[in-house]
Design goal:
Number of domains: 2
Oligomer: single chain
Order of helices and strands: HHHEEEEEEEEEEE
Largest sheet: 7 strands, antiparallel
């Protein structure tokens, strides 16, 4: 009798857990297959879509956050925009238009934003920092650029792997089209 009650309770618990989990899955972020399908629907080849996903996985492993589009990662207070392999600037791959607006696009940061670019002259992958925080750039090296267009007078500070100060920007609005990311491990944008 006891084992029959245990089985019934286990089945009831499993049914309840499955129902609750099913509700959670409905609101969960899309998976890799969805992002790959979106990238392919946007005209990327299978190789481009796979390379883009590998790049997103690398950013997620080092910076954390959540992937919200084939080439976009949401961090707490910042958004990472990834370029399609072989392209110089990120673009919308979701078809969402204004909903996927990039405040760093066009080579300059919108007001109240600090944008870091992996490449020189505001090209390559972008990190749009709009909330005060520390953001990690440990995978970037070589020449890149940044545009600090936060509120007037705001200075961003860059730090090396040991946490030692490396560089401070001039007060906003300031920019550098050809900086060096090699010694930078993180940026505190405020």
């Amino acid at each position: 009798m006891r084992s029959k009650i245990t089985v019934l309770l286990s089945a009831a618990f499993l049914a309840l857990f499955t129902a609750l989990l099913g509700g959670a899955q409905a609101t969960a972020a899309p998976g890799t297959a969805t992002f790959t399908a979106q990238a392919r629907a946007a005209g990327l080849s299978a190789d481009q879509a796979a390379s883009l996903q590998a790049k997103a996985d690398s950013y997620l492993a080092t910076a954390g956050g959540a992937q919200v589009a084939p080439n976009r990662i949401q961090l707490a207070g910042a958004t990472v925009y990834l370029t399609v392999p072989g392209e110089d600037h990120p673009r919308d791959l979701t078809g969402a238009g204004a909903a996927s607006y990039d405040p760093c696009a066009g080579g300059g940061a919108d007001f109240k934003h600090m944008c870091a670019y992996r490449g020189t002259w505001y090209s390559g992958d972008e990190v749009d920092m709009y909330n005060c925080g520390r953001y990690y750039f440990s995978t970037w090296s070589g020449s890149g650029s940044w545009d600090n267009n936060q509120t007037g007078g705001t200075v961003a500070r860059m730090y090396g792997p040991s946490g030692a100060w490396v560089f401070s920007t001039q007060p906003a609005h300031s920019q550098d089209p050809n900086g060096n990311w090699s010694p930078v491990h993180s940026v505190v944008n405020c």
